[in-house]
Design goal:
The complex is a heterodimer of chains A (470) and B (165).
Chain A lengths: L4 H9 L32 E2 L4 E3 L5 E5 L8 H13 L6 E5 L4 H4 L9 H28 L6 E4 L2 E4 L4 E4 H8 L28 H6 L14 E7 L6 E6 L1 H5 L3 E7 L2 E6 L2 H10 L1 E5 L8 H11 L12 H6 L3 E9 L11 E6 L4 E5 L4 H12 L6 E5 L13 H13 L3 E4 L2 H6 L7 E9 L29
Helix pairs in contact in A: 2-4, 4-5, 11-12
Chain B lengths: L2 E6 L2 E6 L6 H9 L17 E4 L2 E4 L12 E3 L11 H8 L9 H14 L5 H8 L9 H20 L8
Helix pairs in contact in B: 2-5, 3-4, 3-5
The chains are: A alpha+beta (470), B alpha+beta (165).
């Protein structure tokens, strides 16, 4: 399979000499709780490409550029890398990759695409690293690489009964050229793929150690909640912050684009401060919008539907039907209801912007923060935390905007939390639907030969888009 | 500001917080224990479940003034030198998906097993119906509770070591 542009950037531009550049961020399995992220202080850990690093201690560190939200992708994609790399599952740890479109392309998890989009590519990345390890061993032994094999974590030369651990080879191996088309394992040789090894994210999820976005703590941080519009499009007319400022722990009250922000020493004080806040709103044109009015719009739209398909004489068939079936299928707008309500932590300094967030869209997060700060995306660092549910809600960056505006104003790190109520009321719902079905059955209860269905609210099925190639 | 002495995971410490501040926020924002989670704030999801004198309760609706002199245990205090049988069972059965509710689930399950080591399905329902899981891991939670009960039985049935003479 030909390498596509994204791979090329990683393997050649960023590859070769740049492989060691790979990533300069900390490679801990669970993010640090306080303090700046540690740089790789230990020269023994080497990056082979944007996804695979191996330490002198044989530990395998994998960066996964899709978001784990309980669907298992951190493990599933790590398996693809580990299989072709040929390592013991117990030596593997994986974490979310930071936002880095030069290495990972546009990072966005959704639509059940993570495995389809990445599996083949990541097998290749694992195989490329294994190839380089084999080359390094062969060179050290002065033997042809084709005579070498691997068993998990080791390169072997059967003819001379020699073997070396990967950890002993990493320094030399990571300097070697990256192969364009490394050989992949045959399915018959799979150790991991096709099995269900223990998920990598589960151990810390049962001890409470996993860091979700809401758990991020930064030195000198403030906690914020926003008094938001009571209906879509309403804007702040005025507000009285004096009672809010009386609440012990409240540090500041200020307006940001999404409403009035209360900043405090801890979440409880911010919540109490918001309760005490008095805000006057300018109503928008959507003040009367609700489930009922939306449904009425959809019901009125039904007879005006555009025909997507019209076979036979539907009108006659329905008219003559022995038995007519009528049904309505509808769903209202529904909140995704992630159990962890949306939130984001941000810090803005003269160096740039740093964001900690559970997100399905690291790239969009980075772009949003960059726009708000008026800086290039290269100066925005995004830490992808574990997600307490995604379901599509965490593809949006509205909660990111809140935190970045807050951090900009506060000149301290700020975590903006949406309460359960904010989260439910906050828009970006699952799609609404109103579909009617009319069907005709003949005397025997079968569909008459000449077309039978009228589906006035159907859209034409879009042509299958060309798969994103890798 | 008043000062409260709280006994958390076996350790007593003083905190300067308002008396009506829910234990959930004291744990998360003052003590620094973020394992106990905020999901709703109105005791409807039970992601915030802790043990108060061994009883599983929602910490989002517990003002600190009401837990003085009581033993508070959080998810962080569940394991000793080894994982708690519930945690072990949760790993064996691969229970969590996103995992956000699981601190609360594990605290509810461990409280149940402490008083009822052989729960029937109805007992699990009665004790844990309030713990919401948005990812829908309920079947595995149930299997996890039964597995934890088995682990506890096995531990109990191990032959006791002879006393040193």
């Amino acid at each position: 399979m030909a390498l596509h542009r994204r791979d090329f950037l990683v393997l050649s531009g960023a590859g070769g000499v740049g492989l060691l550049l790979g990533c300069r961020l900390g490679c801990n399995k669970t993010p640090e709780k306080l303090g700046a992220p540690p740089e790789i202080s230990d020269d023994s850990q080497k990056w082979f490409n944007a996804w695979v690093a191996i330490g002198a201690d044989d530990r395998v560190y994998l960066r996964i550029h899709e978001a784990e939200m309980g669907q298992g992708i951190l493990t599933g994609l790590a398996m693809a890398l580990a299989e072709e790399l040929d390592v013991e599952w117990s030596s593997v740890q994986a974490e979310h990759a930071p936002a880095d479109s030069a290495r990972y392309g546009r990072q966005s998890t959704g639509g059940s695409t993570s495995t389809r989009d990445n599996h083949a590519m990541l097998r290749k990345m694992g195989a490329a690293a294994r190839h380089m390890l084999v080359q390094a061993a062969a060179q050290a032994w002065g033997v042809p690489a084709v005579e070498c094999t691997t068993t998990p974590g080791q390169v072997r030369h059967a003819a001379s009964a020699r073997q070396t651990r990967y950890g002993a080879l990493v320094n030399e191996a990571a300097k070697l050229p990256v192969p364009e088309a490394p050989k992949l394992k045959a399915a018959a040789d799979f150790q991991l793929l096709g099995s269900s090894p223990p998920r990598l994210d589960i151990p810390t999820k049962v001890t409470g150690e996993t860091q979700y976005g809401i758990d991020v703590r930064r030195p000198n941080m403030l906690f914020g909640v926003v008094a938001r519009a009571p209906h879509f499009g309403a804007t702040v007319k005025s507000f009285d912050d004096a009672p809010a400022r009386q609440v012990l722990g409240v540090q500041d009250v200020l307006q940001i684009p999404s409403g009035v922000l209360v900043l405090a020493d801890h979440t409880w004080a911010a919540l109490r401060g918001r309760e005490a806040l008095k805000v006057q709103w300018n109503a928008s044109e959507h003040a009367e919008l609700n489930d009922q009015s939306i449904r009425e719009q959809l019901v009125r739209a039904i007879p005006k539907g555009r025909a997507a398909r019209d076979d036979g004489d539907v009108k006659t068939v329905l008219h003559k039907a022995q038995q007519r079936i009528e049904a309505v299928y509808e769903v209202p707008y529904l909140a995704h209801a992630c159990l962890e309500p949306v939130n984001c932590t941000a810090e803005v300094t003269t160096d740039g912007c740093e964001v900690w967030v559970g997100t399905q869209s690291p790239t969009a997060t980075q772009q949003t923060a960059a726009e708000i700060c008026g800086i290039p995306t290269e100066r925005v660092k995004v830490h992808s935390m574990m997600l307490g549910g995604g379901f599509g809600r965490r593809s949006h960056t509205d909660f990111v905007s809140d935190a970045v505006f807050a951090a900009k104003a506060a000149r301290r790190p700020v975590q903006v939390l949406w309460t359960r109520e904010d989260d439910t009321r906050g828009g970006h719902y699952r799609p609404v639907g109103y579909n009617t079905l009319s069907g005709a059955l003949d005397a025997e209860g079968w569909f008459p030969r000449l077309g039978a269905f009228v589906l006035p609210n159907r859209h034409p099925r879009p042509k299958r888009q060309a798969a994103r190639g890798h | 500001m008043p000062s409260f002495t709280l006994n958390i995971n076996g350790k007593s410490q003083k905190f300067d917080v308002p008396g009506d501040m829910p234990l959930l926020w004291v744990l998360r924002d003052v003590v620094g224990l973020t394992g106990t989670k905020y999901g709703c704030g109105i005791a409807q999801c039970r992601a915030c479940t802790v043990h108060i004198d061994g009883v599983a309760l929602p910490s989002c609706q517990l003002p600190v003034s009401e837990v003085l002199g009581k033993e508070i245990h959080t998810i962080e205090g569940l394991a000793s030198e080894t994982l708690h049988p519930v945690q072990q069972a949760w790993i064996e059965e691969q229970v969590p998906q996103c995992g956000y509710c699981q601190s609360g689930q594990i605290m509810s399950a461990s409280a149940l097993l402490a008083t009822n080591p052989q729960p029937k399905d109805e007992d699990i329902d009665a004790a844990m119906w309030g713990n919401i899981c948005r990812c829908g891991t309920y079947n595995r939670i149930r299997r996890g509770v039964h597995r934890a009960a088995q682990i506890m039985r096995d531990k109990k049935n191990q032959p006791t070591k002879p006393d040193k003479k």
